[in-house]
Amino acid sequence: xxxxxxxxxxxxxxxxxxxxxxxxxxxxxxxxxxxxxxxxxxxxxxxxxxxxxxxxxxxxxxxxxxxxxxxxxxxxxxxxxxxxxxxxxxxxxxxxxxxxxxxxxxxxxxxxxxxxxxxxxxxxxxxxxxxxxxxxxxxxxxxxxxxxxxxxxxxxxxxxxxxxxxxxxxxxxxxxxxxxxxxxxxxxxxxxxxxxxxxxxxxxxxxxxxxxxxxxxxxxxxxxxxxxxxxxxxxxxxxxxxxxxxxxxxxxxxxxxxxxxxxxxxxxxxxxxxxxxxxxxxxxxxxxxxxxxxxxxxxxxxxxxxxxxxxxxxxxxxxxxxxxxxxxxxxxxxxxxxxxxxxxxxxxxxx
Length: 351
Prior knowledge:
- The protein is an alpha/beta fold.
- 46% of the residues lie in helices and 15% in strands.
- It has twelve helices and 13 strands.
- It has helices spanning 24-35, 48-59, 74-88, 111-136, 160-183, 201-204, 222-234, 245-256, 258-272, 312-318, 320-323, 325-342; strands at residues 15-19, 39-44, 63-68, 93-96, 102-103, 142-149, 187-194, 196-197, 206-207, 212-213, 219-220, 240-242, 274-275.
- Strands 3-2-1-4-6-7-12 form a seven-stranded parallel β-sheet, with helices on both faces.
- The longest helix has 26 residues, at 111-136.
- The chain is globular and about 50 Å long.
- Keywords: Membrane, Oxidoreductase, Transmembrane, Transmembrane helix.
- Residues 10-59 form the Rhodanese domain.
- It comes from Streptomyces viridochromogenes Tue57.
């Protein structure tokens, strides 16, 4: 039986699908789309978080459709997409955001656990994208937003399964984008690379560390990510967006001095991802933390005191055209030149 949040009025706003919508970035993005008057389909496994998200979407001015689904199940994802299309009449935007993670050294992760993270975090995006395309390609319009991370380019210790999945999404999305461009399709796919974000994930991921899992500082509020996602949904021609100065710095450093970054992360990466305190629970790898006996975690995690709600770099990324390509190229050129000089191979000096 449908709840009051599952009523959709045809013709009002865009029809938006968000996976992993029950908490964190997905929850914040759902509210940001709702504030624009969009109709929002909320996809996730849990019950409490979905109900809370639907209520907030309605109060923000949008319309909500709740669909409980495990993104690792391809048929269930197809069925969910069909439910959205039946309710809303179409799918205009699909945001892939659902993920699973484990905080542990690689040697302490079982094959089944690694497979599960990969199936949810990577194949969930593949299945979601396929389901979206099934409805978008016949209409020759629509935008798919892949929510990524700086970890799509730069792996860090203790998150091997998650980093591997994010790298895979990056390669998959680039391949798909080339195919759509070759076909002259008006369906767009873009990727939003996020920094560390203050979400509840650090209290519900499977954790085998001595301390409580935490994001690597600096930490941003989920609303920063949500604004970038909403912007990307309306400007899908851009191949990707970088959110947060830490994302930009990490990706540039990884392109220029990846070996140095390996050594830096080996020294600092373990401590930077832990706080003192006991683990919150067994994690949500196999069952949702907001299931029948769980609770609604909302969009924010426990790091509100240190998280920042604005990112000048994110504004620059969204308004890159206004800033002028020369500024961006000049800045990157300066960084690359400095890196090459440190290695004794300046392009200004012949060898």
